[in-house]
Amino acid sequence: MGDIITTIGTFLTDLLSSLGMGPSAVEITIKIIVAAILGVFGIGLVIFTVWLERKVAGRIQDRLGPNRVGPYGIFQTVADAIKLLTKELITPAGADKVPYNIAPVFSVLGVLLIWAVVPFTTNAIASDLNVAVLYIVAVGAFGVLAVLMAGWSSNNKYALLGALRVVAQTISYEVPLVLSLLVPVMLAGTMSTQGIVEAQPIWYIVYVPVAAFVFFVSSLAEVGRPPFDLLEAESELVAGFHIEYSGMRFAMFFLAEFMHAFAISALTAVLFLGGWRGPWVQQYPTLGFVYLGIKTMVVYFVVMWVRCTVPRVRIDQMLNLNWKFLVPLSLVNVLMVAILGKLPLRLSEEQVAEVLQNTPWVEWAFGPEFMAELPRAVLFLLANAALVIVVLALLGVYARRERRKVEALVDEGEFSAPQPAAAHQ
Question: How far is CA 164 from CA 148, 154, 241, 295, in A?
Answer without folding.
Answer: 7, 13, 9, 35
